[in-house]
Amino acid sequence: MSKSPTPKGTPVQRSPSDGVPEGLQSPQHSTPVSGPQHKKRISSLLQSPSFREELDVLIQEQMKKGGSSSNLWALRQLADFMASHGSPATLPVSPSNMMMVTSINDLHGWEPGSLVKGERLMRCKLASTHRLFDLYGWAQISQTLLTLRVSKEQEHFLVLPEGLAYSEVTGSSLVKVNLLGEVVEKGSTNLQVGTDKFSLHSAIYSARPDVRCLLHLHTPATAAVSAMKSGLLPLSHEALLVGDVAYYDYNGVMGEEEDRMELQKSLGPTCKVLVLRNHGIVALGESVEEAFYTIFHIQAACQIQVTALCSSGGEHNLIMLDRAIHKPNPTGTVSWAGSTFGPLHKSRTGEHEFEALMRTLDNLLDKPIRFRWCQVCVAATR
């Protein structure tokens, strides 16, 4: 059956299988699929805020479902590429921040049998402390550890495994070990714990049952002060805030019982600051908050001391503070909780400051709740 000729200028109707929408003119007048206009449309779509929002939601869903690391890595690479080649980014674009897409509180759906009461929150706090060390430029790859005692009854401790950067630490990646450094719960990785690194912490925890958290800092300033015969000088208010300081000639290992006894003798029953000669400084705390509060002021005090000694020409040109006159703020604070006439609430040392730092971590990101950095106290207890 013959077809009637199509009037000139009339649009040609094509089936959907041809891949060309209805209403287009004959093929010789259509735009090629691979033409510049098509590429421009694709580029515009990829750089649109709505597409980035969808990509972000996809990343979060994969994290919640426990998607494979290769899938998450590919999505993060795509997000990072888009952020660095398009308009103002929704996701962080700094190379050191690539792993910050991962939430600290990644414990949802992770149910190892060895978790004790409150361990989820403690894991999130210690992981947050690692992120803070990275933020302040204190992260080390040498013989330093940040550890937390999670159970006094069983003497179990959380520690960072070897091979993870401080910027990568999450609640589930921390390894739980016993007093000998033997793994009790390996966490979400297959990485090992350096028993030699942990031996110092093990000795301190054995000597001081009151201590819950140890933070070892080995920055240039703290290492410099630990190498000075004078030790930490009372040059600043920060130096007075840390209280009494103990000194120990540390040789890098704590394998012998004699070394442990000497450490216990040097540390005493109440001291919260331990200077390891030529090996930095360790802060001891009854909580993560107290330990970080102490180490923060130690770093500031050491930086002030190094700067003052360099610029003054020597210790004899410096003014020392008299501890009897220049007294630091009392440990802990008592403040009103709730309304103005609400009940009194006694907070532990560093508690309010640590909460503020958690909010600071959140505020570094465009969408803090999305990554749940400072939500650890709420989310970890759900």
Automatic annotation (TrEMBL):
<protein>
    <submittedName>
        <fullName>Beta-adducin</fullName>
    </submittedName>
</protein>
<dbReference type="InterPro" id="IPR036409">
    <property type="entry name" value="Aldolase_II/adducin_N_sf"/>
</dbReference>
<comment type="similarity">
    <text>Belongs to the aldolase class II family. Adducin subfamily.</text>
</comment>
<dbReference type="InterPro" id="IPR051017">
    <property type="entry name" value="Aldolase-II_Adducin_sf"/>
</dbReference>
<dbReference type="InterPro" id="IPR001303">
    <property type="entry name" value="Aldolase_II/adducin_N"/>
</dbReference>
<dbReference type="Pfam" id="PF00596">
    <property type="entry name" value="Aldolase_II"/>
</dbReference>
<feature type="domain" description="Class II aldolase/adducin N-terminal">
    <location>
        <begin position="124"/>
        <end position="306"/>
    </location>
</feature>
<feature type="region of interest" description="Disordered">
    <location>
        <begin position="1"/>
        <end position="46"/>
    </location>
</feature>
<feature type="compositionally biased region" description="Polar residues">
    <location>
        <begin position="1"/>
        <end position="16"/>
    </location>
</feature>
<feature type="compositionally biased region" description="Polar residues">
    <location>
        <begin position="25"/>
        <end position="34"/>
    </location>
</feature>
